[in-house]
Amino acid sequence: MLSVIIVAYRPDKVKLRKILKKIGKQTKIIIINNCKEYNLNDIKFSKKTKIIRSKNYGNGAGINLGLKNCKTKLAMYLDIDVEFKNNFIQKFINYSKKVKDFSVLIPNHGNLNSKKKRIEKYEGEASVMLFNIKKFRKTKIFDENYFLYFEELDLFYNCKKMGLKTYFVTHLNIKHLRASSISDNVHKISNLRSWHYMWSMFFYYKKNFSYFMAVKKTFFLIIKDFLMLLIYLIIFNKFKFQNRFYRLFGILSCMLGLKSYLRP
Fold it and tell me: Which domain holds residue 169?
């Protein structure tokens, strides 16, 4: 009934082992290994685990590949850097049976309190998602122009346009540790993420609204980043200077119509 999809790029193996243990041996797991040079042979996987090696086309593309290989009715995407209780997955599946018309269910990341058990038309982060696969048979779920960030917001916005229902489930909670799953150079990864965050933000508004709206939504961020760049240059703070530089570099790249090309 359920397949769990994990997209991994040079993952922290301690975190990977921990989440595999939480998922359990009875659930089908599809791991998209986005780094062909990174060896996972020292991890003991269950017999129901399928590992697919792939070039690093991005998180959304990795999930699409996982979904393409799903043979179950439901698929759950999990970031490696999430924490949840042992019975979370089973509770999520049980609850999904009560929501007959959903396309995507998103658990509470700790960012919303509500008396309602679910809220329709969610537009926010989603490090865990439960997909009703039959709703998406004729299309790729994620836009693969995004490499990192905003791919889930783009999905939810387009689900709304297509009349597909996404629900935020308020009483099922997880904790997202954010960007803690990669075992690599901290500053390098931070700069990469900054570049992609700004590129993806501009692309999201440009794609779904207009170029003018993208400029309007990001204008003050550009001004702030430019001013902070000058400050960090003056006080010789190398790492913070680099981070602001990559933010500006990312958004400028998208403004010029360049693809999301920067890679680890």
Answer: 2-176
C-alpha 122: how far from chain center = 15
- 94 CB-near residues (< 8 Å, 6+ apart): none
Mean pLDDT of the chain: 89
CA distance 107 to 233: 42
> pTM higher than 0.85 for the full model?
yes
Q: Helix, strand or coil for residue 145?
A: coil
What is the distance between the alpha carbons of residues 122 and 38, in angstroms, rounded to a whole number?
35
What's the total number of domains in the chain? 2
- Residue 129 belongs to what H/E stretch? strand 128-132
Q: State whether 59 and 140 are in the same domain.
A: yes
Please state, in angstroms and rounded to a whole number, the distance separating the CA atoms of residues 178 and 79.
Answer: 9
66 occurs within a structural domain: yes
H/E stretch holding 147: none
Determine the average pLDDT of the residues in 66-75: 92
Q: Are residues 93 and 202 in the same domain?
A: no
Q: How far apart are CA 168 and CA 192, in angstroms?
A: 29
Tokens of 1: 């009934």
Query: Are residue 16 and residue 93 in the same domain, yes or no?
Result: yes
**Run of H or E residues at 106:** strand 102-108
Residue 263 covered by a domain: no
Report the pLDDT value the prediction gives residue 182, as an integer from 0 to 100: 53
Q: Specify whether 44 is located in the same domain as 72.
A: yes
Q: What is the DSSP letter of 11?
A: B
Look-up: residue for tokens 């090309």?
261
pLDDT score of 63: 95
Rg of the chain over Cα atoms, rounded to whole angstroms, equals 19
Contact 157/213 with Cβ under 8 angstroms? no
pLDDT of 26 higher than 60: yes
